[in-house]
């Protein structure tokens, strides 16, 4: 029995010894944990301050943008992004300014970042789609417009923009559907009727094209481009008088339209009014129209020049 008691005492003493040895480790761990918590609190405090400062810079950017101070707004949005890279609105509005300044690649990068941070950012998809459209990347534009429509299905502008993108990929039925949807949302959209005219032209349904261009002109009689589109169809159909009337209107609305002068010159030439044909061809060349030299020489010689 005495032996057992001694053994138990030995084990007890050994256990106490081990605890004493480990005690500094527990103290160190506690100190380390406390230090980590303090550092974490400081980091959180710094992050909150950065976020507040970023929002202040973002709001200053909005005020500068409203005041027309684009470069200043650009700097303030950049500061907001530097302070808090998770602020998707700062990327969006900086991209908006870049796009307005013609810096499409920078705008594209910012709109892309905006949708990465906020996947349901419909306006960012729409604006990125516009840039892809301008770059003739129509499939990417259509994908972005489609995403924007899913998010904001009542936005007439996006349907119209997608309609033009579809037209440029020869998906004319889809384009017609989008322009028609635009008119459901806005029955007096001259641009939507112009788009329908364009799509029907590509389908070679010229009567419907003329009807839609005519409706567009009724709604917006100041659009030189719509008169020019309709004039080209009249010309192709052999209705030179109506084509001539429309080209006259184009030149009235846009005196620097070299293509309109050239097209009118060709009608005058066919009508054997060689003097007017030469005058218009010469004007077209002055305005930078792409006119074949042999054709230009023919206009000139036919007028006796």
- How much is the radius of gyration in Å? 35 Å
Terminal Cα separation, in Å?
A: 139 Å
Task: Bin the strand percentage.
Answer: under 5%
Helicity range: over 70%
Shape: elongated
What is the mean predicted local confidence, pLDDT? 88
Q: How does the helix and strand content classify structurally?
A: mainly alpha
- Total strands: 0
Q: How are the SSEs ordered, and which strands pair?
A:
Elements: H1 2-66, H2 70-83, H3 88-100, H4 104-117, H5 122-134, H6 138-151, H7 156-167, H8 172-185, H9 190-202, H10 206-219, H11 224-236, H12 240-253, H13 258-270, H14 274-286, H15 293-302
Describe this structure in words.
This protein has 15 helices and no strands. The N terminus is likely disordered. The chain is elongated, with a radius of gyration of 35 Å. 82% of the residues lie in helices and 0% in strands. It is mainly alpha-helical and 305 residues long. Helix 14 packs antiparallel against helix 15. The longest helix is centred in the N-terminal third of the chain and has 65 residues. It starts with a helix and ends with a helix. 37% of the residues are buried.
